[in-house]
Design brief:
seven-stranded mixed β-sheet, 2 domains, Quinone oxidoreductase (chains A, B), Rossmann fold, globular, Quinone Oxidoreductase, Chain A, domain 1, 353 residues
Chain lengths: 353, 353
């Protein structure tokens, strides 16, 4: 029997999740795990994926008829994807020391059926296996299918990408510029430092949305009919989306991938979309999407990324932000997502015992 | 030489257009028209089309790079489409007494080149030629291509139509139910009387958005996964669009045709769109469109409507709201569009001299 600490979803948050006050979002708890039975495996989630999407899973508004996954339940560990180490195995499929993909949530240990796990393949060239949580995992697939299938980008397009220094956005920039070869790629990010990094990834230009001149900078970067944006890959929603409606070319496409600007103001979203008429007058096409609809085509993306890596077209450096810390630090690290505190994929590395 | 009164665009309105105060939107004026020259025709616009879209043409925000027509100019007659009578002709193409389509604007008379006019064909079955401004004109084409081409509706779809008692909406209802045979057609309109009329057109149900129970009524009409809306044909924007995001089925399609709820609050739109995340989680597709992109296929729609008429599937009765009045009444009649004062197509018949 193993004792396991767990971060339990205590109260579904209506605003920014909190660890304090009368209704903390998460509570640290401890439980005794049963020994693994035949076909089960005891794992330790070591590298935990931090995703803005998790905020949606714990919203009180999340409804099983509407959300693309089962909404999280209070009293249970906060759901999360992770790379986990096999500690003890009662399955022929895995042995102690193996690495597996496990959706175990914020728990120190978990006993899971072997069939709920997937093996983590070795990566060539000394690359970190944590890339499977980001560039080579769901995040990379999101960028790939969002850009190519949903956005249908071509080399003739001018593409704007928000959240460009984030996990998905930084992959989008590279796919648009280095895989497709788009005419112009404009990133939007939250600091000068992030913007310079995004330009280093291949963006022709990256604009700091926290600058007082942002609206004007965006206007100058997309100044008229031949230079309006053909594709806007939206990771943020809110005011930037609203502003982008005014910078889209006729028949432009908006890839609605994320809306982090709204995630913490579910109940009282002060910022709506005011420029809706642009959608009509410019005949825009907006498509919301969730990467799970594309998982059956994952190999297509992975092969493209392997090829990009070989050709030196996929920059991995700086695209991962790994925070090492004790198990107790997990929620604090996750909250960095909503503070703009990370560059690229935010991964929590839980300290070994 | 003919004297002609004209309603001049005096000030571009930032809110509801007004005829009074320091900055009236329109001013009545009088001008001397030159005699028609060779190839020109003197016409009298008699049946004037009243369209919500005209509000967009006179907005101070309307920009030639963004709007789908040249924005209206102050000091010139308010633009409008009309059926006009030929008073005097210096062209071999038209003779006195002919009826023509003329985009002459709010003017009592106009001298126009013959090539800027199109003949108005006779209608069989004693139908009024004013139908060419509505059901059999741009409005009908808007409904037809919006529903079939943009919305891609099929008989398996549950379709919701806002502004269902309006010119476009009332055609949408009939196309969805009587041409396509959709599984369920739900209208949204602004009074119980309008709703009963919409149901008479073929809607399975029509909901009054002014009722205090509207949100709940809409929820009940689209209660769950198998009964969420597959297609939403949006003529209104604003709060109803925002609410509809929460009632759409996975992979549902939104046809963004109009946003009358926003047209008079361009500068300070209090109501934004707060349920944007639904676009992502339900993988919605939204397509803005303008009928001018489909004019080259107009015959396809006209033939379909003729067939529907012959088969008794297109109800014309009650679908036209003709207001007869003196030339001076034109703006007042047009403003009915924004008061919900009309059912079906609103046409102004300018009294003969």
């Amino acid at each position: 029997m193993v004792k396991s600490r767990q971060w339990i979803l205590a109260n579904k948050p209506t605003a920014l999740p909190t660890l304090t006050g009368d209704t903390p979002t998460f509570k640290l708890s401890e439980t005794d795990l049963p020994d693994p039975k035949e076909g089960e495996v005891l794992v330790k989630p070591t590298y935990i994926s931090n995703d803005p999407a998790q905020r949606g899973w714990i919203s009180p508004e999340a409804h099983p008829d509407r959300l693309y996954v089962a909404p999280a339940k209070t009293g249970e560990p906060m759901p999360a994807r992770a790379l986990a180490e096999v500690i003890e195995s009662k399955s022929n499929d895995y042995k102690k020391g193996d690495w597996v993909f496990a959706s175990a949530g914020w728990t120190e240990y978990a006993v899971l059926p072997a069939k709920a796990l997937q093996p983590v393949p070795e990566l060539e060239g000394g690359l970190s296996k944590t890339l499977y949580l980001g560039a080579l995992g769901g995040t990379g697939l999101t960028a790939y299918f969002g850009m190519l299938d949903v956005g249908q980008v071509t080399k003739d397009d001018i593409v704007v990408i928000s959240g460009a220094a984030g996990a998905t956005g930084s992959m989008c920039v590279q796919i648009a510029k280095k895989l497709v070869g788009c005419k112009k790629v404009i990133g939007i990010a939250g600091s000068e430092e992030k913007c310079r990094w995004v330009e280093g990834l291949g963006a022709d230009l990256c604009l700091n949305y926290k600058s007082s001149s942002f609206a004007e900078d965006l206007r100058k970067a997309t100044p008229g009919p031949d230079e309006f944006a053909n594709v806007y890959y939206d990771n943020v929603g809110g005011e930037i989306l609203d502003l982008m409606f005014t910078r889209m070319a006729r028949h432009g496409r908006v890839v609605a991938c994320g809306a982090i600007a709204n995630y913490n103001s579910m109940s009282d979203r002060a910022t709506g979309l005011k420029n809706w008429f642009e959608v009509i007058q410019m005949r825009l096409q907006i498509r919301g999407f969730i990467v799970i609809d594309y998982l059956h085509r994952a190999n297509e993306a992975r092969e493209a990324f392997q090829k990009m890596l070989k050709e030196g077209k996929l920059q991995i450096e700086g695209g991962e932000h790994v925070v090492k810390g004790d198990f107790e630090e997990i929620p604090k690290t996750w909250l960095k997502l909503f503070e703009g505190g990370n560059q690229g994929k935010l991964v929590t590395e839980v300290a070994r015992l």
